Amino acid sequence: MQKFLRKILLKPVLSLTKRFSGSPEKKIIFKALNELQQNILDNKSGKGKIIPFDLKDGSFIIFSDAHKGGGDNADDFMQCEDNYLGALQYYHHNGFHFISLGDSEELWETTLAPIKKVHPKSFESEKQFIPANAFTKIYGNHDLYWSNDPFAGIELKKIYGRELQVFEGVILTTFIDDIALNIFCTHGHQGDKLSDGNWFSKFFVARIWAPFQAYLNINPNTPAYDSSLKNKHNQAMYEWTINHKNILLVTGHTHQPVFASLTHLERLFRDLLICRNNNDQEGAGKTEKEIEIRKHQYQHISEDYLSMLPTYFNSGCCCYDDGDITGLEIDKGCIRLIKWSKKSGVPTRKVLEEVELRKLIMA
């Protein structure tokens, strides 16, 4: 029956998905981000919170898109869990505030019960940040359940041992030479016509539409699965930031790390030009080889990547098929793109990119 239904419904489902939640529309995205930011700043509607921090002492780790599943073949988090556990242990030990930036649980493909059964260690690792008030949980489009299910609060208390509010966004705020810098963190699905719509549309997506697609084994047309949508998403998010002075935007959603507005491939092309301008033939050769390896993962670079302002960041994800996870650290006045992978069987942290927050301030 499943195969038969998939055969006759594949085209209509894909068509409807594309029509209602496909290509990002900047006008809708900008409106949604503006409204969320203002609601948080005005402390309205419980959409989020403001977390002030000292530039020298504030420490945050941002992970997104774990997509914890039910332990079956579709559970992409399974092989990443050891790195996730190792990373959280490190950050808890070093006094970081943990921001889980949405899609932590994969509630489009399964229900909460098997996720809790399969991944109790991960929930316990997240729980250890709570006594120090150092855990902020954000919802995404794949775990909208936390924002619209009447029993979500009960489940959260069962998992974490106390009441916990799940937000749509958070703003980290600090001062650099008397200039305010806001770091606006949200999952990044804002502007999706279904997932970011009213209560009914969110309920429909989370409890009817997504399970229906999962039953038919039809991947939703979202940035995480579509490289062209990744680029459109990144471009839209970046363009929102350039209209807001001294605001950095941090999202997830695409599963593609972005640091200071550049993807890894865009950064490689920039480095290649620098090597050529400096007559560094050895460096140029190494960079060209790296580009050949990486270009199939991205397939597109922004036409103006050399002139982009360093205002947009994406944490990547915690469900890569090689078991690695990526995230963003804000620590000791810097923001870093980091990767955790196993070295000799031990979860190991590696800094991929780093820049001082001071350098991102526009006077």
Describe this structure in words.
The chain has helices at 2-21, 26-41, 81-93, 112-118, 120-127, 145-148, 152-160, 199-215, 227-241, 264-277, 281-298; strands at 48-52, 59-63, 97-101, 135-138, 166-167, 169-176, 179-186, 247-251, 258-259, 262-263, 312-314, 325-331, 334-343, 346-356. It has 363 residues and is an alpha/beta fold. The strands form three sheets. Strands 5-4-3-2-12-13-14 form a seven-stranded mixed β-sheet. Strands 1-6-7-8-11 form a five-stranded mixed β-sheet, with helices on one face. Helix 3 (81-93) links the parallel strand 2 and strand 3. The radius of gyration is 20 Å and the shape is globular. The model has no long low-confidence stretch (mean pLDDT 83).
Rounded radius of gyration (Å): 20 Å
Low-confidence segments: none
CATH class equals Alpha Beta
CATH architecture: 4-Layer Sandwich
Shape: globular
Q: Biggest sheet: strands side by side, in what order?
A: 5-4-3-2-12-13-14
What class, by secondary structure content?
alpha/beta
Largest sheet: 7 strands, mixed
Q: Give the helix tally.
A: 11
**Structural domain tally:** 1
Strand count:
14
The fold-level CATH name is Purple Acid Phosphatase, chain A, domain 2
Helical content band? 25-40%
* Head-to-tail CA distance between termini: 63 Å
User: Topology as H/E string?
Assistant: HHEEHEHHEHHEEEHHEEEHHEEEE
Strand coverage percent? 15-25%
Oligomer: single chain
User: What's the overall average pLDDT, rounded?
Assistant: 83
